[in-house]
Amino acid sequence: MSGKKWCRYGKKYNKEWEKETSLKDWIRPQVGDSSKAFCRYCKCEIRAHHADLMQHAGTEKHKKNSALFSSMRLTDIGFTTSKQNETTKTNELKIATYIACHTSISAVDHLSELVGSTSTEKELKIHRTKCTALINNVIAPCMFTDLMSDIGDAQYSLVIDESTDITSVKQLCVVIRYFSVKRNKIVSTFLGMINLDGETAEAIASTLTSFLQSVGLDMKKCMGLGTDGCSVMVGKRNSVYTHLLQKNPNLQLLKCVCHSIQLCVSKAVETLPRNLEYLVSHSHNWFSHSALCRREYAKIYSLINPGEVPLMLTQMSGTRWLSIHDCCSRILQQWDELKLHFQQSKDQQRCYDAEILHQMYSDPMNKLYLLFLMPFLQEFNRINKLFQQDRGNPFKMLECLLLFFRSLISRVVRPDKIPTSDEQLLAINFTDQTVLLPVGAICFGLTFTIALEEAKVESTSERNMKSRCRDFLVEACRQVQKRLPTNIQIWKSMTEFSPAVILSQAKQQLRSLSLLKLYSGDLTALDTQYQAVTYHPWTNKEDTQAEAFWVEVLSYKDSCGDQAFKELALFALSLLAMPLSNADVERVFSQMNLVKSKLRNRMGQDTLSSILHIKYGLRRQGICCKDFIPSKEMLQRFNCHMYSVGGTSGSRETDANEDSDDGL
């Protein structure tokens, strides 16, 4: 129709068209212009002429777009309600799980198209918005529900720590440890990541309490609290622990052994010459920012060691446990090569730092100090790694820790002054010089002694060095004695539930057990089971198999099919679930830094927590994304309402930021 004729007729939008079967689902009046209609499927304008509208309804574009709305049409207009294929839902949930575990959410835009082009699954349509909704409002909530169902009414322990993410937001991470009846093992898993509004003890305790209430956990069922040794967490007067004690008077505090050992070594190293720290830190700094220095050193190293490549020097870190051990080890392995490199650098570059470092490497005293340190650092590192296990045996670890402490003090304390009992061992007065061995009688280690004899240093320098080394050992003993007795007392109390003690006929009466106050169930049933457990022929009787022993006790059924030792076994397993260190929460922080990186720095709190819940939910099941099978609840949640559930706004902000990933 020509423009003149159209203008002459002056056609306008007719409300009666909205009653026609073929038009009423998609036609709308164009706001502000009565001469045009609007298609809500194609998002386009059409002239308000009946023939043009019918012509538009027959286009391929309109048919394709209208198919997306087929599930929302009413059956009274001739269409049947169609549901998305369950197989397609399952595949899209698996893709969303893979995205949460391994890569950025923005990658799903290309991944879905790639999968659709290389497989027979043509109905696969998942992009960032849909993937984010599946992660936040379908998969993660179902996994969290499964976690809370698994915990049930069981007693549990918490491990908490605070950290700052890439956007300088203060976060409180909460890890829960409990015995899972469903999986028949002690589980340590991520519970939640909470934004902190304040950094005071009262604010942190209030935030933690509110979070536990929101997820349905009773604070009175919390048996142990694992945390580091900072005053805001464990102070005697005003700390997170003292505030939580008001909610649960029987709460046990367990300071992180790994943090404590790190502080013991740091304090002890301060007794040695300060130039050792300069030597270790500046040796790393010399190579860390200069490719030229690394190339020149590689040439020198290959001349001395043909066909070999030098290992990079590691950086000292106050937050990485006992990093000084790896730093000293690398330097000692390459001492001569580093000495030659700094000699060449000071001559060619006339660099003052290189000259200072060359002087230090030329001084045999510095190498002797590092040789002295190595065996002790190695032993501290071994104990540290022992307590980083997520399923360690507290009975065996207590034995290893006490043996390590006894071995350490035997180097500086007179043999007749070393008590036999562990309680007296923790009460030795190291400031009393009559308790300590003379410098000449101390065993400083075989490697150090041989190297000292070969170095042939002056007698005055030798006496001074041995005196400084003795101060290191004494300070190390004093620090271990100062920082670990509380944990040792708790673990010694837990030995009352070790297989060797619980099966002994000479065991204590139940009322005399120090940890009985943590039990909140039927004391009569507990006492009966405590007495009767001794007389059954159990398979796992070794203390090294404590968890397996109590699982066997829990699984035992009498002739009626009842669990005869249920209360006793569950209580003992809850004690075994008490944290040994903060290693689990530090691992969560490592995962957080991998997920919320510089490129994804606008990630919302909901998306971050959801991704961590998915990662740890799969870990609890012992599977990865390739073995993941969506549950029925996930398939039920997979509907149009998943976009409107609270918590999606933060993730949409993330998706907008992640556009930069595709341009890398």
Set out the fold topology.
Blueprint: H1 3-9, E1 27-29, E2 36-39, E3 44-47, H2 50-57, H3 60-67, H4 86-102, H5 108-118, H6 128-151, E4 156-164, E5 170-180, E6 185-195, H7 201-215, E7 222-227, H8 231-234, H9 240-247, E8 252-255, H10 257-269, H11 275-288, H12 291-304, H13 323-333, H14 335-349, H15 352-362, H16 364-386, H17 394-409, H18 422-425, H19 446-455, H20 459-483, H21 485-494, H22 499-502, H23 523-532, H24 546-555, H25 566-576, H26 583-595, H27 605-621, H28 632-637, H29 648-657
Parallel strand pairs: 4-7, 7-8
Antiparallel strand pairs: 1-2, 2-3, 4-5, 5-6
Description:
This protein is of the alpha/beta class and 664 residues long. The protein has 4 domains: 75 residues, no CATH class; 183 residues, 2-Layer Sandwich (Nucleotidyltransferase, domain 5); 218 residues, no CATH class; 81 residues, no CATH class. It is 53% helix and 8% strand. It is built from 29 helices and 8 strands. The strands form 2 sheets. Strands 6-5-4-7-8 form a 5-stranded mixed sheet. A 3-stranded antiparallel sheet has the order 1-2-3, with helices on one face. A hairpin with a 4-residue loop joins strand 5 and strand 6. Helix 10 packs antiparallel against helix 20.
